[in-house]
Amino acid sequence: MAAPWPEDPSLERHFKGHRDAVTCVDFSLNTKQLASGSMDSCLMVWHMKPQSRAYRFAGHKDAVTCVNFSPSGHLLASGSRDKTVRIWIPNVKGESTVFRAHTATVRSVHFCSDGQSFVTASDDKTVKVWSTHRQKFLFSLSQHINWVRCARFSPDGRLIVSASDDKTVKLWDKTSRECVHSYCEHGGFVTFVDFHPSGTCIAAAGMDNTVKVWDVRTHRLLQHYQPRCGFPHPSRQREESGVGAEPAPGAHQRAPDADQHAGAHRGPAGRPHPDGLHPGAAADADGRQAEAVSGEPAANHAENDIVIRGARIKSSLDFGWWQAGDLYYGTWVNK
Fold first, then answer.
1. Is the pLDDT of residue 6 over 70?
2. Does domain 109-125+143-227 have CATH number 1.20.120.80?
3. Cα–Cα distance, 157 to 41 (Å, whole number)
């Protein structure tokens, strides 16, 4: 008989090390490492094994906005407000290769499934694709007319999807470098987009408080998720009602499938390198040293810490969210 579900997630790991707000996180595919970026201009690589040490990588000149492990886990990419992308070898040496990537803040970086290329998105309104092992720029996709918040490869690496403040989601063919389709249904800035693991559909999140899912083969809108609880955006609530304002009328009402998740929401040079990158090639001197810091569990958490929590919920999806510099992570598993 299955064990009873706990009312709240249990604390599994608590990482301290960042000196300012945590902006992004990414697990390696083998789940043995967790990378995080921060407004303190540093990356941290945390080891999930208890009592293991973590490392701080310094090199960026401004806030780190995005991080992504290569499929093999041997490389780690980061983007920054300093307009550069760095490819790190996530070990104690902290060696990195610098890509002078964009003319404005880099918002997103993502490796292709074969690890041979990666895609970046920026406030300069462009999406760019780069060769990992040759360490060079390949081509640019430039039909967006406002900041590009996010770009992702499809699981098979044939397509790229991008989301922008121009209120569109664009689907690109990597080989022809042409825009296959533009999805214009969002009523506000589109902040994030990603492919379903099957590669058959994409989901996009927007400032209009909605999530939309499209089929990439027919371009048909499959799902349109919108708030049913009557809550305004947190920033709007603070502006209009002040801190501690009462929820809007009807806020107690839930979407039909929301109750089953309620418990969780109370609590996300030498030999060639395995990925083809030569360690330290073209790296800046200030990006070579990593500072070891403690990654041991702690009972309480504070601002700028990373907290990992686990929960048993009726689903097969992973979930994560962060606020005030903390990360909460758990796994939803089928009962």
1. no
2. no
3. 30
